[in-house]
Amino acid sequence: DIVLTQSPALAVSLGQRATISCRASESVRSSMHWYQQKSGQQPKLLIYGASNLASGVPARFSGSGSGTDFTFTIDPVEADDIATYYCQQSRNDYTFGAGTKLELK
Amino acid sequence: EVQLVESGGGLVQPGRSLKLSCAASGFTFSNYYMAWVRQAPKKGLEWVATISTSGSRTYYPDSVKGRFTISRDNAKSSLYLQMNSLKSEDTATYYCARHEGYGGYSGFDYWGQGVMVTVSS
Question: What are B69's strand-pairing partners?
């Protein structure tokens, strides 16, 4: 199984940039996707194919990377962005990272 | 508007069975692969099953293979998950989700609101 490693939490100030990383245990090429999950809600797709913005998602969100190292960025962070963010690979079955909880500093 | 509405959850004893349903609307159901993803309380997301557009191909992780069966009825725009030999570790919120194809570069673009399954005696 491909294991995805994310840092558990990130504290950021409103208006600043938040950068979340996801490292895969083996190459997933560009088969990496990012989701936002707010408390008590279902996940929402933000980025697919490593760097493509999903429909209706603000341009403040972006993704980059390929192979084993990926980055998800929110710039600038707004109050509504407080949530847990998950990476997911679809190169070999589907696995999710453990999630990064974005908190306000 | 794309809508996915799960149902069928509840409390079930270990070793028993339960069948979840997901009613889809707002899109051509038969054109999309569908998946089930679960989330244990206070935990992360775990992919549980995927089914092809026609239903002829199904995919599972080892954690549920042989116990869970995903199926679909395109005429009814409905997705199902038959869960047998349930264990306490199957306790989770179960989401149905839409995606394009198996693998590749697309994510799960729409999710239902989820249904809770509790396995306990």
Answer: B82
Q: What SS3 class is residue B17?
A: coil
User: Are the beta carbons of B59 and A93 separated by less than 8 Å?
Assistant: yes
Residue B30 exposure: Cα atoms within 13 Å on the Cβ side: 5
Q: How many CA atoms lie within 13 A of B99 on its CB side?
A: 29
Q: C-alpha B118: how far from its chain's center?
A: 15
Question: In angstroms, how far is the first alpha carbon of chain B from the final one?
Answer: 40
> Chain B interface, mutation test: which of A28, A52, A88, A90, most B Cβ atoms within 10 Å?
A90
B4 bridge partner residues: B24
Q: Is the pLDDT of residue A93 over 90?
A: yes
Nearest to B45 by CA among A7, A4, A56, A57: A4
What pLDDT, in 10s, does the model give residues B46-103? 999 999 999 999 999 999 999 999 999 999 999 999 999 999 999 999 999 999 888 8
**Residue among B46, B104, B108 minimizing CB distance to A31:** B104
Q: Residue B104: its pLDDT value, please?
A: 79
